[in-house]
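Collaborator request, handled under Task 6.
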Amino acid sequence: MWIADGWKDYEVLDTSDGEKLERWGDYLLVRPDPQVIWTTSRKHPGWKRPNAKYHRSSRGGGEWEFFDLPEQWTIRYRDLTFGLKPFSFKHTGLFPEQAVNWDWFSGLIRQRRRQGREVRVLNLFAYTGGATLAAAAAGAAVTHVDASKGMVGWAKENAVLSGLRDAPIRWLVDDCGKFVEREIRRGNHYDGIIMDPPSYGRGPKGEIWKIEESVYPFVQRAALLLSQEPLFFLINSYTTGLAPSVMRYMLTLEQRGRGGRIESGEIGLPVASGTKQEPLVLPCGASARWSWDRAETEA
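Structure tokens returned to the collaborator:
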């Protein structure tokens, strides 16, 4: 398992009975988590005095209950700053577990930039820009694509907060599938591809996206955008129906013959209620990674 253990402004304090207690900067939130099927004694005082709690409805969805929480606040990860706010479907605008992937591809980008080479990255289903900003801060030129105008606007705000207002980021509100097809026709290529597809969604004309049915054809098309000397390909998934080994298999098929390294695994967040002798890690989805460099391949 790959563990996002580099945070200072965020931590999972405890988990119990379908919920997690989290610290986001100075504020404590209680949010539902379907992975938490166990029950604990809930000894942490934050369970009784959170700043906000999201209540899931038996009819689907849910709503926030606020006690003492600002409309928006910020947290930092290394040199990046993110604006947070509670909104629908229990989210805050950031998936902290993805920091373990940010660190991975940032290292690859910096290594190639030290060789004096440019790096172009395509971030699909890019949400509020965590991966975009990490790649840009490492020295890449990034194309950020998301179908939600609001999410792209939020990502731009995060870029300003992180001191990346003038970074070479191309912000696009677009359907990711249609954008990939246009880029193929244009003959454009990228050295790195990041995709974080939803489990389920609808396109602008009512097209149905189910990740188990749609993701492999999409990976096939996106792989055509890789440059002659590509650097990485990263796929994330939050659905339990798409195992890490399945995503690894997809990348193996598409990158066959290129060489390089393919790996897959769960990603997770350390839980503060664990101990050194008995650490606890909350699973938060899975990733598959492919990386390649000419020097590595020829070695």
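The cover message to the collaborator said: "The radius of gyration is 19 Å. Residues 96-298 form a domain with the Rossmann fold fold (CATH 3.40.50.150). Please let us know whether this matches your experimental observations."
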